[in-house]
Design a protein that fits this description.
The complex is a heterodimer of chains A (284) and B (251). Chain A is an alpha/beta fold and 284 residues long. Chain A has helices at residues 2-42, 75-87, 98-106, 121-124, 169-175, 194-202, 213-222, 247-262, 265-273, 276-283, and strands at 52-57, 60-61, 65-68, 71-73, 90-95, 112-118, 127-129, 134-143, 162-165, 188-191, 208-212, 226-228, 234-243. Chain A has 2 domains: 48-135 and 237-283, D-Maltodextrin-Binding Protein, domain 2 (3-Layer(aba) Sandwich); 137-235, Periplasmic binding protein-like II (D-Maltodextrin-Binding Protein, domain 2, 3-Layer(aba) Sandwich), CATH 3.40.190. In chain A, helix 2 (75-87) packs across helix 8 (247-262). The longest helix of chain A has 41 residues, at 2-42. Chain B has one domain (30-250): MetI-like fold (Orthogonal Bundle), CATH 1.10.3720. In chain B, helix 6 packs antiparallel against helix 7 and helix 8 (203-214) runs antiparallel to helix 9 (218-247). Classes of the chains: A alpha/beta (284), B mainly alpha (251).
Chain lengths: 284, 251
Amino acid sequence: MKKVISILMAVVMVFAACMLFSSCTKTEDEEENSTNEAASQESTAMTAKEGVLVMATNAAFPPYEYKEGDSFAGIDVEIATKIAEKLGLTLEIQDVEFGSIIGGVQSGKFDMGVAGMTVNEERLQSVNFTDSYATGVQVVIVNEGSAIASLDDLKADGSMKYGVQQDTTGDIYSSYSVDEGGFGEENVIRYKTGADAVQALKSGKVDAVIIDNEPAKSFVAANEGLKILDTEYAVEDYAICIAKENTALLDAVNEALAELKADGTLQQIINKYIPASLEDSSAA
Amino acid sequence: MDGIQAWFVQQFTELKDKFILCFIDGDRWQWIFDGLLNTLKITLFAGLIGVLIGIIVASVRSSYDKNSESLALRGGFGYHLLRFINGICQLYLTVIRGTPVVVQLMIMYFIILKSSTNGVFVAVITFGINSGAYVAEIFRSGIMAVDAGQFEAGRSLGFNYVQTMRYIIIPQAFKTVLPTLCNEFIALLKETSVAGYVGISDLTKAGDLIRGRTFEAFMPLIAVAIIYLVLVVILTRLVGVLERRLRRSER
C-alpha cells in the first residue's frame, strides 16, 4: 500500500512540475508577444521569426494544398505566397496534421494556419479568423451503383459507416448525435487523410465519405467508380487562422486579402486550380 | 504570501476548467474509455496470437538448429521437410522484423484484408503476426540458452526428443525468457498506438480526437500517457509476481 501511495505521489509531482513548467514558459511567451507588439508599432515585426511568415497546413487536401515533388502547391499555398509578398516577408510552410494547426498557431509555433479551414464557433474560441477567401462545400462521395442516391438515404441506424478525415468539419458534423443532425459517433470512421477515407470507400469499409467539395472532385476524377451526390452536405466559409494576440498580423493579412480580391488575383488563383467547367458540372 | 496563494488558486481553476473542457464537456471521457477498451482488446488478443505463432516458429527453428547436423547425416524426407519449414519461418521473421508495423498495418487494412469492415479485427491479426516474430526469437533464445547437458541428461534417462523438450527444456527456458517476454508485451501495448492510422479508435486516437476538438494539447496527451504508464506498471507487477512464484522451485 505504501508503495502504491508513493507511486501516486510521484505521478502527481511530475504532473505538477509539468504544469509549473508549461505555465512558466507561457508567461515568457506572453512577454515576448508584448515586446513584439510594442515593436510592431514601429516596424512590421508581427511574426515570431523576423522577416519570415510561418504557415501551417496539412498538405493532403487537393486542390487547396498538396505536395508537388519537394515543394507545396495549391490554392492556399499560392494565396499565402501572395500575402507574404505583399507583407514583404518570406513564406515558410510547415506540413503538420490538420488537428495540430490551431494549437500550433495558438502557442505561436506558426504565424498562421492556411488549410482550407472552416470558420466555426469552436475554433473562434481559440483563434481569430481573417475574412473568408473561399467558400467550402461539404459533399458526400459514394461508390457508383450504391443504394445511396440522395442525402435522405444516409442512415444513422448502424447499417452504414461514414468515412471522414479526422478533425475536419466533415468529421465534426457527421459525428454529432442523430438528434443534433449527425450520424452518431459510432458510425463515423476517422482517417488521417482524405485519400485514406476514399480508399476505404472503394474497398467497401465505409458506405460514404463526407469531405470538402474540391478535394472530393480531385478524388472522383482520379478514381473510377466514384460519384458525388448532387446535394451538398453543408456549405461554409474558408479563412486563415491567426493567434488571438496577434491582431497586427490579422489586420495586415486582411488588408492584403482585400487587395488580392480587388485586383482579381484571388479569383485567378482559384480558377487555375478549379476549372470553370468542373464548377459548372457540380452546379448542374 | 497572498500572491503565491492566488497564483495557486488561479492555476488550479485553470486546470479544472481545462479538465472539464477536455473530458466532461460533450462526454469526451467516453472516447478515452472506448479507446482504452479497444487498446486492451487489441493487445490481449494480439498477444495470444503472438505467443501461439511464437511457440510454433521457435520449435521449428530450434529443432532445426539443434538437429540439422544429425538429420543431414541421415538425410531423407524428414530432413528436407524440416529444412523447408525452417526456411519459411526464417522468411517470416525477415519480412516481419524488417518492416515497420505501421506499414504492415496499412498493408493489412488496405490490401490483404481489404474486405473486412472490422478495424479492430485487422489490428489484432496484424499485431499478432508482428508480435509472433519477436516472441519466436525470444523463445528460441530461451531454448538455446538451456545447457546442452540438460538435453543429453534427458535423452540418456530415456526421454524422447519431444518429452525432453516438454519436461526439461521448456520449463527452464520459460523462466529465462519471462522478463524479455514481458518486455515484448509492453512494446506491443505501446505499439498499438499506431492503430489510429487506419481509423481505429484506440486510446491514442481518443487523445488525438480530444486535442483536435478542444485545441488543448496538455490534458488529453498527459492523460493518455498516464493511462499507458499505469497499464505498463500493472503488467510489470503481474509478471514480477509470476517470476517470484516460478523461482520457488529453485530453493
